[in-house]
Amino acid sequence: MNNKLLIIDDEEVLIRNYKSYFGRKGYIVFISLTGEQGLELLKEHDPDLMLLDLHLKDGIQGMEVLREAIAIKPNLKVAILTGFGQDEEVRNACIVLGAKVVLKKPLALDVLKDEIEKLKTL
């Protein structure tokens, strides 16, 4: 397991904060504002972990990114981030597609770090 983390979210300030925080914690962090760019980063850098916003402003949405990411790398450990609650149907669909956990935004950085650490062990 490497410490490469891919973060795909359309909130630029948020992902820059995540990149800085996780970088200080020893992770190699790649960030993307779109699903398309995120999938390219996945192919190029081969991370083992991904944080993925479910609702992206532009391009393909989180569910499709998740589907394609798992097709590219079946053992990828994905945490879904969503600010739209944890609707049981959506949560279950994410899990069926390959996500390990669905988290509600906003999350304190230390809580998110704990979730990432748990994700590494799954």
Can you describe what's shown?
This protein is of the alpha/beta class and 122 residues long. The chain has helices spanning 12-24, 35-45, 62-72, 88-97, 109-121, and strands spanning 4-8, 28-32, 49-53, 77-82, 101-104. Strands 2-1-3-4-5 form a five-stranded parallel beta sheet, sandwiched between helices. Helix 4 (88-97) links the parallel strand 4 (77-82) and strand 5 (101-104). The longest helix has 13 residues, at 12-24. The model has no long low-confidence stretch (mean pLDDT 91).
The average pLDDT value, as a whole number, equals 91
Beta-strand percent range: 15-25%
CATH superfamily grouping of one domain: Response regulator
End-to-end distance: 11 Å
CATH architecture of one domain: 3-Layer(aba) Sandwich
Helical fraction equals 40-55%
Sheet of most strands: 5 strands, parallel
Rough outline:
globular
**Major beta sheet, strand line-up:** 2-1-3-4-5
- The number of distinct helices, counting runs of at least 4 residues, comes to 5
Instruction: Give start-end ranges of low-pLDDT stretches.
Output: none
Derived structural class: alpha/beta
N-to-C SSE series?
EHEHEHEHEH
At the first level of CATH, what is the class of one domain? Alpha Beta
Integer-rounded radius of gyration: 13 Å
